[in-house]
Specification:
Layout lengths: L2 H15 L5 E4 L4 H14 L4 E4 L12 H9 L5 E4 L3 E3 L4 E2 L19 H7 L2 E5 L8 E2 L21 E5 L3 E6 L4 E7 L5 H7 L18 H18 L1 H7 L11
Helix pairs in contact: 1-2, 2-6, 6-7
Length: about 250
């Protein structure tokens, strides 16, 4: 499987997780989650609404991040995606930098509204392609957004799961721990154990992530690829075949 094929498989996997959503929002620098949201809408009509920040054709927000925050507070967004330079076993994410704050080095872009959205949106999917002990750590150096909260704190939102280039984990809020759900074909249980810095639940018989449905893949490479190229042109050019059916939006 080529690198492009692996990215397409991730898109199809994430798309399937969005089928029960009505409104999905995606950040401007998230091409794989963004493509997945557009694919789910094209394939099943659910989510009905997809907002990709930075897009013109696939974003009905006119107030940018402010409108996103308002919709989240009103309970009108069902799913969102977060990542981080570090993610730990309690689903905490670090967007500030490596090492003790404020002397972190290197420094990363910062939290923006990640903590706010993490508390409000019911299905927050953590996504980080790199699956190494450098990124998936026992404990983040700085908590930009906490995965768990004290039981006395009202919290509607939180982590649903974690998807990487090697595996799909679900988050168990009662145990405050990830559980390995499936292993991508290019990886193995031994590989995941070797490259994950935090402890997680798993079975020796953890299944392999199923391959994308051929019809879903075809839809991604034709109709959806044109929509993806509007907001993520470089990403689209790198993974979609150049055919008459996959021409970029003009």
């Amino acid at each position: 499987m080529t690198a492009a094929d692996e990215k397409k498989a991730l898109i199809c996997l994430i798309a399937d997780l969005l089928r029960d959503c009505n409104h999905v929002a995606v950040g401007a620098a998230s091409p794989i989650p963004g493509a997945a949201a557009l694919l789910a809408k094209a394939a099943w009509g659910s989510p009905r609404h997809v907002n990709i920040l930075g897009s013109v054709a696939n974003n009905f927000f006119t107030g940018g991040g402010g409108e996103l925050f308002d919709c989240a507070a009103q309970g009108r967004i069902d799913a969102f995606f977060l990542g981080g330079g570090q993610i730990d076993g309690e689903a905490n994410i670090n967007l500030m930098g490596r090492g003790p704050y404020p002397t972190s080095a290197p420094r990363w872009p910062g939290t923006f509204g990640s903590a706010y959205l993490y508390f409000l949106i019911p299905k927050v999917i953590l996504f980080r392609e790199e699956h190494t002990r450098r990124t998936l750590v026992e404990k983040v150096d700085f908590i930009s957004a906490p995965g768990i909260s004290d039981e006395k704190i009202y919290r509607k939102g939180g982590p649903y799961g974690l998807i990487t280039s090697k595996a799909f984990f679900r988050f168990n809020r009662e145990k405050r721990q990830f559980s390995l759900q499936s292993i991508h074909p290019s990886s193995s249980l031994e590989d995941i154990l070797d490259n994950t810095g935090f402890a997680f639940d798993y079975e020796e018989s953890t299944p392999v992530t199923p391959p994308p449905d051929p019809e879903l893949l075809k839809l991604l490479e034709t109709e959806v690829s044109r929509k993806v190229s509007e907001v993520y042109p470089n990403f689209a050019a790198s993974i979609f075949p150049v055919t008459s059916e996959a021409e970029p939006v003009k």
